[in-house]
Amino acid sequence: MPRRCKYCGKPAIIHLRYANLSLCEEHFKQYYENRIRKILEKHKVRGDILVAVSGGKDSMSLLYALKRLSLMMDINPYAFHINLGIGEYSEMSESIVRSFSRDIRITLILYNIKEELGFTIPEIVMSTKRPPCAVCGIIKRWIINKVAYESGFEYVATGHNIDDASTYFLKALMTQDIYSILRGQHEFLQPKMEVRLVGRIRPQFYLSERENMLYAQLNNIPVVERPCPYSASAPIHRYKAAWDTLLDINPISQINLTRTLLRLGRMINIKEPELRACKICGYPTESRDSICAFCRLLRKTTTNR
Ligand code: Q46
Ligand code: ZN
Ligand code: ZN
């Protein structure tokens, strides 16, 4: 027998096994936006929020949901996109983010790394010989924090989902990376403006890629169809694939693993690393020699040119 929506009895378009919940289109959209709203309310995030938008389904759905929520909450989302210089993938991403932000009337801040830093991601990868996604992650984190800080934002929202958080933990468990397990992945990180560190909120932390994709489809949100050419080689994607089997056995296993390890992290409560100002860029770093990972990468790129 076809499943029916728990709230109105109409034919369901999705069954969320982790919650044993069937929903029609209207109630799924409501459920999705409510989950985002609750995370913002829980952490008292309000006012201007810089939303890091890559053009993928997670961040584009986040931007749209925040725009809708801004009609009923005291939040004001701005879109932020970084053109990473990864060939056609970056050109398509920028164009989709540009047109979507314009369509839903959200101010877009654009950052082109070739123009601002003088190098594209492929160029930095070539000269440093480091794994592309590790390079890209360091560069993006630094840029997002710097632009948010200099533009006066207290919070940045990113499109991390439960697949990302649980895979981070799974990989850390499989590689005995105890420090990453205890440090965790969090739905919220407090701003520390005194050390130029902007707060982070991940409103889709407990939503899955599948839910984000469905929300995007139901709202006709455009997304970049082409994957980043580096994504297939990233080890994290291979760990992600392992969840298909585990979720089949236990549909709430991703959420449970994430919650368990976060709880463990709180119980053990490791000392927060001391942050120092990087002596090159002035942004915070944990590094003892006071040179942040971003400046180290850029220095290596310039030297190896
Ligand atoms: S853009 Fe950058 Fe991703 Fe491409 S290089 Fe890797 S991290 S896969 S989200
Ligand atoms: Zn319904
Ligand atoms: Zn630096």
Q: Any idea what the CATH architecture is?
A: 3-Layer(aba) Sandwich
Strand order of the largest sheet: 5-4-3-6-8-7
Order of helices and strands: EEHEHEHEHHHEHHEEHHHEEH
And the CATH topology?
Rossmann fold
Strand content: 5-15%
Give the biggest beta sheet.
6 strands, mixed
Q: How many E strands?
A: 10
How many individual domains?
1
Distance between the termini: 64 Å
Which ions and ligands are bound to the chains? Fe4 H S5, zinc ion
Low-pLDDT residue spans: none
CATH superfamily: HUPs
Can you offer a commentary on this structure?
This protein has helices spanning 25-42, 57-69, 87-103, 113-117, 121-128, 132-150, 162-174, 178-183, 209-218, 235-249, 253-268, 293-303, and strands at 14-16, 21-23, 47-52, 75-83, 108-112, 155-157, 188-189, 199-201, 276-277, 284-285. It has twelve helices and ten strands. Helices cover 50% and strands 12% of the residues. The strands form three sheets. The protein has a six-stranded mixed β-sheet, with helices on both faces. The chain starts with 13 loop residues before the first strand and ends with a helix. The relative contact order is 0.15. The structure holds Fe4 H S5 (Q46) and zinc ion (2 copies). Residues 84, 121, 132-133, 136-137, 228, 230-231, 234 line the site of Fe4 H S5.
Question: What characteristics describe this protein?
Answer:
alpha/beta, Rossmann fold, six-stranded mixed beta sheet, two-stranded antiparallel ribbon, globular, binds Fe4 H S5, binds zinc ion
Layout of helices and strands:
Blueprint lengths: L13 E3 L4 E3 L1 H18 L4 E6 L4 H13 L5 E9 L3 H17 L4 E5 H5 L3 H8 L3 H19 L4 E3 L4 H13 L3 H6 L4 E2 L9 E3 L7 H10 L16 H15 L3 H16 L7 E2 L6 E2 L7 H11 L2
Parallel strand pairs: 3-4, 3-6, 4-5, 6-8
Antiparallel strand pairs: 1-2, 7-8, 9-10
Helix pairs in contact: 1-2, 1-9, 2-9, 5-12, 7-10, 7-11
Bound molecules: Fe4 H S5 (Q46) and zinc ion (2 copies).
